Recover the amino acids of this structure.
RNA sequence: GGAGAAGUACCCAAGUGGCUGUAAGGGGGCGCACUCGAAAUGCGCUAGGGCGGGCAACCGUCGCGUGAGUUCGAAUCUCACCUUCUCCGCCA
């Protein structure tokens, strides 16, 4: 959510920056009228309330002295009715304003390339050499099915499409990766480990920006108004909702493992095979809360923390800086880390690292105090996958495959795999 | 799921419609005095925050779990909801 005062004072500038995102901004022009009507109503209603408070005190004095106060009571009854009318109108105006503000995307950072879609994203860097197989490489779903370590067919019987059973060394590989990633971020990168709830309420989903605009992307629990988490970002960021943090405790760094649930509305027919696009997948998520002046350094740090996983796994990747048209709703700046997938003959997103600045913090009321008597300020929030585990499994299977259909286990994972060196 | 109890400021806690209730009192914290220093003691300060107005000092308004309602006036009365706790049932 944007700062109302900032929007009021810099309306044209904000509007033109948001236009680079290519989103529908037709609501934005209503802001001026709603905002000034709101302030009018507040002034009027508060003046009446001040009067009512004052006269009520006088009434109490008169009553105590057993004097007549009927005319004052009658007058205040009318004032009370007027206050109620104004308050109702105010409430309506504020609801409209709130609805509008919650639907306005974040302002892109000045370093974000201006562009329309993914073709305009800019490559920030590349790491590792692409594998050179002396044979025809297989896609991970064929490899895994032949090795009997993933079972998509039975998952569709038990649940439906876009679900999977991991079996045997497949399950073991997933679990090894989860432990490897958690250990790396907790022990080496200084993040505090967390296992969050897999369901969150509507307020939490609104706090991080999934709602109100993107409800169709989430799974909602019938009768509960709870949502399956689309990412651990939601529970972990909302962990500090409506809190004022100590400046001395910043930056706060959390690494959380959770399953992630996405309805993938609108992606029918895309990535229908394999692990790439499932309704449920495991992910290790990095989340940071920091002071505003630090957040762009933190974004680089957090992205580097995620890259480290791929470097240790020796998987080739590149880092893309998302352009204004591909930023998503909430981010001010975003890097996607894309891993090389031989079956696609291209890089595919395996992590997304974003700086939200104070966009989420304002929605979720997450603030900090610089000094004891200081005014609270909004923190900046950031997060990034470190990494999506299912996609990491597919990258390992494809990049480490051998001609006979077996798969070498990356060295760093072997301690987590009971010393196993090959999946065959 | 059934029956009960509770939610007041950093913590504990008093407060059943106006009476310094302008949210008491205590703890903790901070400051000052005493002291070479400290302890002890004494004195003082200690809601925070949102919103509106103002260049500011400041003024106003809303805050006693949340939201509605009754009333000239609500922490206090009414209703709904949330959370926590106790007992019973069920359960990994």
């Amino acid at each position: 959510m944007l700062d109302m005062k900032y929007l009021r004072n810099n309306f044209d500038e904000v509007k033109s920056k948001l236009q680079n995102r290519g989103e529908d901004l037709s609501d934005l022009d209503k802001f001026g009228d709603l905002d000034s009507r709101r302030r009018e109503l507040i002034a009027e209603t508060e003046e009446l309330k001040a009067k009512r408070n004052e006269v009520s005190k006088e009434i109490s004095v008169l009553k105590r002295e057993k004097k007549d106060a009927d005319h004052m009571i009658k007058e205040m009854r009318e004032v009370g009715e007027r206050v109620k009318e104004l308050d109702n109108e105010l409430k309506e105006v504020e609801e409209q304003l709130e609805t509008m503000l919650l639907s306005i995307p974040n302002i892109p950072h000045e370093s974000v390339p201006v562009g329309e879609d993914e073709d305009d994203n800019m490559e920030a860097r590349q790491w590792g050499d692409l594998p050179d197989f002396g044979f025809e490489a297989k896609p991970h779903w064929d490899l895994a099915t032949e090795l009997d370590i993933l079972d998509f067919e039975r998952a569709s019987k038990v649940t439906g499409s876009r679900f999977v059973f991991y079996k045997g060394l497949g399950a073991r590989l997933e679990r090894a990766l989860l432990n490897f990633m958690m250990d790396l971020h907790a022990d080496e990168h200084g993040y505090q480990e967390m296992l969050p709830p897999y369901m969150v309420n509507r307020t939490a989903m609104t706090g991080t920006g999934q709602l109100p605009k993107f409800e169709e992307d989430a799974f909602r629990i019938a009768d509960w108004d709870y949502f399956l988490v689309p990412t651990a970002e939601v529970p972990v960021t909302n962990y500090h909702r409506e809190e004022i943090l100590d400046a001395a405790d910043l930056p706060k760094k959390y690494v959380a493992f959770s399953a992630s649930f996405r309805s993938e509305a609108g992606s029918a027919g895309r990535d229908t095979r394999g692990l790439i696009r499932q309704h449920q997948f495991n992910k290790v998520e990095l989340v940071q809360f920091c002071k505003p002046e630090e957040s762009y350094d933190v974004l680089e740090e957090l992205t580097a923390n995620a890259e480290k996983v791929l470097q240790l796994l020796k998987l080739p990747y590149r880092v893309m800086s998302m352009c204004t048209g591909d930023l998503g709703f909430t981010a001010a700046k975003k890097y996607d880390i894309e891993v090389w997938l031989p079956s696609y003959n291209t890089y595919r997103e395996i992590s997304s690292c974003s700086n939200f600045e104070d966009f989420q913090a304002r929605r979720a009321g997450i603030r900090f105090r610089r000094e004891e008597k200081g005014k609270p300020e909004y923190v900046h929030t950031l997060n990034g996958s470190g990494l999506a585990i299912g996609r990491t499994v597919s990258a390992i299977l494809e990049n480490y495959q051998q001609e006979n259909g077996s798969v070498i286990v990356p060295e760093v994972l072997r301690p987590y795999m009971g010393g196993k060196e090959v999946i065959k």
User: Anything to note?
Assistant: The radius of gyration of chain A is 27 Å. Residues 38-39, 42-43, 45-47, 49-50, 52-53, 55-57, 59-61, 63-64, 69, 72-77, 79-80, 244, 376 of chain A lie near RNA strand B (CB under 10 Å from a C1'). Chain A has two domains: 4-102, 118-423. DSSP finds twelve helices and 18 strands in chain A.
